[in-house]
């Protein structure tokens, strides 16, 4: 109990000391780097995951391939991938982005695919029978109906990416992982815990953003079904 | 209007859904496709809007091969209603109904105004417009499904078992409502059901399919019941087709006799003097009140003082069918069916023997009717020979006379209750 209080006090001291809020080593700069890595990899992962998820869900072809690829990708250790790409491509942001994209694609892909495939066949049949084209069925019926699951996939991916983007610090890049890696090498636990606290806070913010997003863009007609599942 | 020319649908796995179907559906009528599961009726329906493409033959709509029109464009001009309504859960009721107008690019305001109109037409209150499908009952959802199909006022409506997923009471309401709507709208409707009763109630013409996608018989409901083409059809329309056929015989032509009727003010002595086991008690406008049993009569007083046995139900000479009359006879405590006129006053009584003798006469004339292809031909032939055949006697609200009878307000609750 005293340990915990002690740690909270340490984090408090660390967070409130003015040097943490200025310069290249300050929280704002590291946070900006962290958000850049996370944002970019989420963007790529969303493009890939949504495109394939929608395509396979809509056509019903390649479902097995999607499931296999996604599960395989889940088994890849993120840190190992970073090291691998660093040895292949050299030291840059690329290894980090590749690793984070590989981490973020499976939840987005699987949830998008499941969301579209799970659309009530009657609604799809009615949409087609009333004269919607394939694109109209996808955009006016399947995507809106799959939106709760699509958002869930994006949220899971975003939180994982935000938490895992700390690996960028290993190959010497920035981001909030800097505090943790540096703290560990210097045995500066105040730094480690402080850095972790910021990462946790960021994950909570991401969670809150997605909750708000869901309220804003998911149709109220879908909410009862979505809360049940 | 809708024409099938040697249409077949075979699947790669070797099953034949529809086998060499040739059929022409009349404009402005309800054609019911009926048959056991796997008989190709739904496939046939779905070939009209190209949801299923035939492997052989042509389907044409108003003389044009439907393959000449792009599928989405074709479908926007054909209403489509399916079993579980298939509403879009993420859209409000109003926006569901506005779907096709929006697809056609009407603009939001105009499309929604049209949708509001349609909700009213199918009998849904305006307060439902802003709700979502999950907030509606099955029957209400099905009404929305019909409204949505009518969105752009298409001349043709395809309905695939639209009423089979709701309970029997709601189904009855929806069917009556549907016939009322059709009377107003005169759409060309193709209606799929596995329920022969529904087919007979709703269809102007019925196509009976047998397993393997072959057309077994295409005829009017009356002729289907009177002259099933073969054992399969006879079996499919059911053992009681003789009774059901009575729905197409108007009660108006049935012979009634005066019967033992007395006003409620008459004395018990008068009732006894008739020397009948049962006496029909009527009010001062000759509307029936109930039956008095002679054996239970007191020694003095008037008929107003004694307890009456209930009528069961009466039948109306305007609007009801012979089936209602026969049912009234079977349910009556005196075994006499009471026929009432448009004002609800007693026109006469008849027992089941008298009724069946009269109906048998009709059956004979029906049997003598030539192989007629059209509805009109059959009706005229039968008209000459006693009780008229009337299309739509199955539905009390369908015949105009029946509406008048309803308007008079007397005894409507009981009249014709046994029909169906």
TrEMBL record, chain A:
This is ABC transporter permease. Residues 31-210 form the ABC transmembrane type-1 domain. It is found in: Cell membrane; Membrane. The keyword Membrane applies. Keywords: Membrane, Transmembrane, Transmembrane helix, Transport. Belongs to the binding-protein-dependent transport system permease family. One of its GO terms (biological process) is transmembrane transport. The lineage of its organism: Bacteria, Bacillati, Actinomycetota, Actinomycetes, Kitasatosporales. The chain crosses the membrane at residues 35-56, 76-105, 149-171, 191-213. GO terms for cellular component: plasma membrane. InterPro entries: ABC_transp_perm/SBD (IPR051204), MetI-like (IPR000515), MetI-like_sf (IPR035906). It is a multi-pass membrane protein. Its main location: membrane.
């Amino acid at each position: 109990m005293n340990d915990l209080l002690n740690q909270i006090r340490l984090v408090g001291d660390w967070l409130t000391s003015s040097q943490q809020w200025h310069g290249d080593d300050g929280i704002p700069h590291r946070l900006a780097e962290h958000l850049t890595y996370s944002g970019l990899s989420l963007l790529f992962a969303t493009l890939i995951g949504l495109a394939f998820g929608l395509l396979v869900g809509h056509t019903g072809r390649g479902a097995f391939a999607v499931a296999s690829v996604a599960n395989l990708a889940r088994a890849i250790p993120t840190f190992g991938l970073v090291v691998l790409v660093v040895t292949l491509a050299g030291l840059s942001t690329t290894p980090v982005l590749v690793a984070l994209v590989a981490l973020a694609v499976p939840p987005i892909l699987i949830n998008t695919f499941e969301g579209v495939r799970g659309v009530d066949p009657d609604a799809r049949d009615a949409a087609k029978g009333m004269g919607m084209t394939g694109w109209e069925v996808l955009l006016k019926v399947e995507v809106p109906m799959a939106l709760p699951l699509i958002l869930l996939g994006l949220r899971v991916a975003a939180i994982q990416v935000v938490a895992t983007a700390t690996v960028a610090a290993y190959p010497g890049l920035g981001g909030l992982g800097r505090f943790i890696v540096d703290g560990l090498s210097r045995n500066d636990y105040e730094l480690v815990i402080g850095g972790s606290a910021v990462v946790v806070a960021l994950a909570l913010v991401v969670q809150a953003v997605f909750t708000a997003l869901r309220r804003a863009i998911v149709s109220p007609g879908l909410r009862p079904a979505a809360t049940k599942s | 209007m809708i024409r099938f020319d040697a249409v077949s649908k075979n699947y790669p796995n070797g099953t034949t859904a529809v086998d060499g179907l040739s059929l022409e559906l009349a404009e402005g009528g309800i054609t019911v496709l009926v048959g056991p599961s796997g008989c190709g009726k739904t496939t046939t329906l779905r070939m009209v809007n190209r949801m299923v493409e035939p492997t052989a033959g042509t389907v044409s709509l108003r003389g044009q091969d439907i393959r000449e029109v792009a599928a989405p464009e074709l479908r926007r001009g054909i209403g489509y209603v399916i079993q579980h309504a298939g509403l879009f859960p993420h859209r409000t009721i109003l926006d569901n109904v506005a779907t096709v107008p929006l697809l056609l690019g009407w603009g939001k305001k105009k499309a929604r105004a049209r949708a509001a109109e349609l909700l009213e037409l199918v009998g849904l209150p305006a307060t439902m417009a802003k709700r979502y499908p999950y907030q509606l009952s099955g029957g209400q959802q099905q009404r929305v499904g019909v409204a949505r199909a009518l969105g752009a006022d298409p001349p043709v409506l395809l309905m695939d078992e639209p009423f089979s997923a709701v309970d029997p009471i709601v189904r009855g309401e929806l069917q009556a409502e549907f016939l009322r709507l059709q009377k107003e709208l005169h759409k060309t409707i193709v209606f799929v059901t596995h329920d022969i009763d529904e087919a007979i109630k709703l269809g102007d013409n019925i196509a009976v399919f047998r397993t393997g996608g072959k057309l077994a018989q295409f005829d009017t409901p009356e002729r289907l019941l009177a002259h099933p083409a073969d054992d399969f059809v006879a079996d499919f329309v059911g053992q009681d087709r003789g009774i059901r056929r009575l729905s197409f015989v108007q009660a108006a032509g049935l012979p009634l006799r005066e019967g033992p009727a007395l006003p409620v003010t008459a004395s018990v002595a008068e009732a006894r003097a008739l020397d009948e086991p049962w006496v029909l008690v009527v009010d001062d406008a000759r509307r029936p009140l109930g039956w008095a049993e002679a054996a239970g009569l007191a020694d003095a007083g008037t008929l107003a003082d004694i307890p009456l046995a209930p009528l069961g139900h009466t039948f109306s000479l305007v609007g009801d069918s012979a089936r209602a009359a026969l049912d009234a006879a079977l349910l009556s405590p005196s075994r006499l069916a009471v026929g009432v006129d448009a004002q609800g006053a007693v026109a006469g009584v008849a027992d089941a023997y008298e009724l069946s003798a009269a109906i048998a006469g009709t059956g004979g004339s029906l049997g003598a009717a030539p192989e007629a292809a059209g509805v009109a031909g059959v009706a005229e032939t039968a008209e000459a020979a006693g009780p008229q055949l009337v299309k739509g006697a199955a539905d009390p609200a369908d015949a105009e006379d029946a509406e008048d009878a309803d308007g008079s307000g007397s005894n409507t609750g009981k009249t014709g209750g046994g029909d169906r």
